[in-house]
Design a protein that fits this description.
Length: 366
Amino acid sequence: MTKTVLVAGLGLIGGSLAINIKENTDYHLIGFDVNSQTLDYSLKNRIVDEVVTDFKKAVKQADICILAAPVSKTIELIDQLKHIVVDKPLLITDVSSVKKPIIEAASGITSDMITFIGGHPMAGSHKKGIEAAKGHLFENAIYILSPDDSCSSKNLRELENLLKGTRSTILKLDPTEHDEMTSVISHFPHLIASSLVHQAKKWQKKHVNIPTLAAGGFRDITRIASSNPAMWQDIFFQNKSIIQDLLEDWVNEMTDLKKLLETDDKISMYQYLEQAREYRDGLDTKKKGAIPSFYDVYVDIFDQTGALLKVVSLLAQKDISIKNIEILEMREGITGVLRLSLLSQKDQIESNRLLIENGYETMLQE
Ligand SMILES: NC(=O)c1ccc[n+]([C@@H]2O[C@H](COP(=O)([O-])OP(=O)(O)OC[C@H]3O[C@@H](n4cnc5c(N)ncnc54)[C@H](O)[C@@H]3O)[C@@H](O)[C@H]2O)c1
Ligand SMILES: O=C(O)C(=O)C[C@]1(C(=O)O)C=C[C@@H](O)C=C1
């Protein structure tokens, strides 16, 4: 018999998982969300087979339930699950960016029929809502699962099978490990990105043209400051103590840097920058990790109508698929740099050759 999957919270992540599951399995998909427009959109665009407004009733129908609401709302949904009586096995997972409070809440589910496996796809975007959902969002990403000791291998396999179509790589982490690692690599950088934007905004009072000068570097480092504030506020408070520790570390490090300037210690400053460069470059090696392993080609193009289209068509003629395109710097009449991210080294070399043959100036990611 066809199994039923309930997705509770049909935003960017829940919607993307629903699309992916629909594309890759024949499971019957039910969608639940507190936003009626989201439910209408999901049904109209056939992201799910059925929508419901009664969470408890839908849970009783489901074989698998994916909780994809904001972290604190996911905890509230888990609290509801503690009081629902199910008469068939139910496998529950979530997608929350913070794991410890989720696993703690789930430990209060006492029914023998229910298995909870914490989950977190390490991919997303600064966009939110169902309209931004994409079935291929998790391709090449790390998908963290936090099964506890009581989780059977059958249940784990069932969840892994469901997620197979995402083409992500499953990594098992315990919740504490997860929360520390994601704070360093994901949560804390969001706080810093927002603080850099605030700094620019303050200085704009003195220099009105600051936004005009905000070129590649500033845009690169602050892209994530355009993310969903409600989601990040929730994450920071759910992972508060680690964020506080990292903030303290950061303040100390900034104080050290300040001292290097005060004491004119150019050698230490150089070493600081060089060590950061070496570590950052190492993250981009061709193994999968928090930073996806793409093969980049940088192309110098003029900001003229059709320039982007010409580059893309050139590669498309040779069936080279581009994983990601980013314009790093582009001002009217001035050359700009286009970053093409490709899926294999073969595509990277072939694209580079084609572009050079057609008169483009290129550079490969080392
Ligand atoms: N955005 C990312 O980059 C990203 C990446 C990985 C994991 N996550 C995690 O995924 C979860 C969802 O984030 P998102 O980016 O999809 O957010 P989103 O704002 O795009 O979607 C959240 C959805 O949950 C719905 N919702 C809110 N309260 C609800 C409730 N009580 N019951 C049911 N639905 C409810 C909202 O209406 C919305 O449709 C969060 O826990 C977040 O930490 C986000
Ligand atoms: O790509 C982005 O914009 C993201 O912010 C994705 C990102 C991240 O920090 O890497 C954000 C939150 C998640 O929990 C996982 C992934």
